TrEMBL record:
Record Gene3D superfamilies: Peptidyl-tRNA hydrolase
SUPFAM superfamilies: Peptidyl-tRNA hydrolase-like (SSF53178)
Residues annotated as binding tRNA: Y18, Y75, N77, N123
Cellular localisation: Cytoplasm
Protein task: Catalyzes the release of premature peptidyl moieties from peptidyl-tRNA molecules trapped in stalled 50S ribosomal subunits, and thus maintains levels of free tRNAs and 50S ribosomes.
The reaction(s) this protein catalyses: an N-acyl-L-alpha-aminoacyl-tRNA + H2O = an N-acyl-L-amino acid + a tRNA + H(+)
UniProt key word Repeat: no
Annotated keywords: Cytoplasm, Hydrolase, RNA-binding, tRNA-binding
HAMAP family xrefs: Pept_tRNA_hydro_bact
Protein name in the entry: Peptidyl-tRNA hydrolase
Organism ancestry: Bacteria, Bacillati, Actinomycetota, Actinomycetes, Micrococcales
UniProt-recorded Gene Ontology molecular function terms: peptidyl-tRNA hydrolase activity; tRNA binding
Top-level class of the enzyme under EC nomenclature: hydrolase
Amino acid sequence: MTDHLWLVVGLGNPGPQYAGNRHNVGHMVLDLLAARHRATFTAHRSRAAVAEARLGVLPGGAPGPRVVLAKPSTYMNTSGGPVAGLAQYFDVAPEHVLVVHDEVDIPFGDVRCKSGGGEGGHNGLRDITKALGTRDYVRVRTGVGRPPGRMDTADYVLKDFGTVERKELPFLLDDAADAVEMILTEGLLAAQGKFHTKS
């Protein structure tokens, strides 16, 4: 694959009070990717924490593509400004922007990958689409499941993972991080083939 620079964004809200929320699973996945590749986040003027690395290994054994890992430091609903700012600063086309986010329409523990399409009511994605001027960016949709009973979705995603979920959370984060690396090294279809058929 050509050695394009990728912008990999993990969505979440800033501050320790939100760190364990379901809505912050994007931040958690980015922290894992940074730890895997010994990359350190530093503040960037585009209102984000960024780290540069090479992710994964290409078929044949060469290092994976260059990436900018980014965690916007704005609130989730205003993620678009930092993402568009970083894409412009690093000269990354929308098709090489990959966003990792929580997804209530996917069962907890499952990961789905797609490019383009709607935002499914996710305000962070909606703001990114508006700021980039296109829906044609890649998403790694990290399943957090639907709220129980009549709980409001907004309240649900702003709560921490439950006790049982927390035991399984490392596996979900691993899968989402693996999906990011696979998209970058083998392509979206390969990642869909692996993660969409996983039981």
